[in-house]
Amino acid sequence: MVTVAVISILIAVTVPSFFNETRKARAAAEVQPLFNDLRVRLEQYLQENGVYPDTLGEAALYPTNTPTSAAIPLNPLPATWQALKVRISGPDQVRCGYSWVTSRSNNGQTGPTAGNAGAEATAFGFSPPATDWYYLLAKCRMDDGHSAFSWYFTSSVDPTIQKLNEGQ
Q1: How many other β-carbons are positioned within 10 Å of the β-carbon of residue 118?
Q2: What pTM does this model have?
Q3: Any idea where the domains of the chain sit in the sequence?
Q4: Does residue 39 come out as left (phi exceeding 0), alpha (psi in the -120 to 50 range) or beta?
Q5: Cis omega before residue 76 (within 30°)?
Q6: pLDDT score, position 115
Q7: Which residues of the chain have pLDDT under 50?
Q8: Which residues are registered as beta bridge partners of 106?
Q9: For residue 63, is the peptide bond before it cis, meaning its omega torsion is within 30 degrees of 0?
Q10: Which of 55, 67, 81, 145 has the smallest count of CB within 10 Å of its CB?
Q11: Cα within 13 Å of Cα(114), Cβ side
């Protein structure tokens, strides 16, 4: 009976950790390729047109503003994404909403406010540079059992993908 109790305790400790790591891995497998695709297309657009494309804004997430753990198809892409010549190289079914914000140098626009997220996205600490810039934002829900959304952020200033509530 002692052996069964010890095994039960070990299972109770490791199973939640396993599911948390699974959600993190699923989020990374989705967000990283899509951010890479968007980053390449934004830079290509800049080279071809001399400016970044118009901003979509943080409230205009695609394919959804309120993600759920159910995967949603990305295709067909909206006109703004088609104009950017986005080609999906990662999963076509996503659990996150995506957007980009662009700005000309020194126009006074500040960093992320993440739409309705309020103070959550300000933790990314983005400071607009003196040159033209962009940032990418993803709002995800990997598990409906959590009340918080996961946020992912990268920018033209720092290509590192920053995370808040990773895997939620």
Answers
A1: 9
A2: 0.80
A3: 2-164
A4: alpha
A5: yes
A6: 41
A7: 113-121
A8: none
A9: yes
A10: 145
A11: 23
